Amino acid sequence: MRGVVFALMLAAAPMIHATPPAVIWTGTLTNYTEADPTSPLLAANQDQITSDVWLTRGTSQGIFNAFSESSYSKPSSPADTEWAVGSIADATNGTLTYGTWYDAGGGNPALNLVGVQLVLHLITDNIYLSVEFTALGSGHEGGSGCSYTRSTPDVVLPTIWNGPLITYN
């Protein structure tokens, strides 16, 4: 009987999903340029940053997360992200205000965010990285896709063994 009660208690317990610890990417900068903004849903035209965030942009409107969205949805795209104007050095110290990409651009991100230092928070992965757009077209039909520079994960070098040499015969 105790086993049945315990099993019922476990089944009724709420599921707890732990948020991964925050990771700040300060590795080498990489450049991304969308190859063909007329086909933003093709993998070749997406910056697949993690398994959950694939940034892209069509020939008009804003950027979106092709992993979970098929087009830009103002003002919430890109899904599973939040943005702040500022430096990656301030990513988690409480001095930045995070919101949507649309809000970071003052309601007109395609015109206002080129050349602005941004911090992108990938919510599910709890990763912070720097982004600076170098081109966003005009934001209207006939515009171009997007290009930007972003930080990458830090390189972790292997540990070198400094212990004694052991010889086996």
Describe this structure in words.
The structure is a single chain. The chain is α+β, with helices and mostly antiparallel strands and 169 residues long. It has one domain (19-151). 11% of the residues lie in helices and 24% in strands. It contains 3 helices and 9 strands, in the order H-E-E-E-E-E-E-H-H-E-E-E. It has helices at residues 2-12, 101-104, 109-112; strands at 23-25, 29-33, 47-48, 54-57, 63-65, 81-85, 118-122, 127-135, 147-151. The strands form 2 sheets. Strands 1, 2, 6, 7, 8 and 9 form a 6-stranded mixed β-sheet that branches. It has a 3-stranded antiparallel β-sheet with strand order 3-4-5, with no helix packed on it. A hairpin with a 4-residue loop joins strand 7 and strand 8. The longest helix has 11 residues, at 2-12. The N and C termini lie far apart (60 Å).
Descriptors:
about 170 residues; alpha+beta; three-stranded antiparallel β-sheet; about 25% strand; elongated
Please tell me what the overall shape is. elongated
Largest sheet: 6 strands, mixed
Total domains: 1
Please trace the helix and strand order, writing H or E for each element.
Answer: HEEEEEEHHEEE
**Count of alpha and pi helical runs:** 3
Structural class: alpha+beta
Helicity range? 10-25%
Q: Tell me what portion of residues adopts beta-strand conformation.
A: 15-25%
Poorly predicted regions are 4-12
Radius of gyration, whole Å: 21 Å
Mean pLDDT: 86
Distance N to C terminus:
60 Å
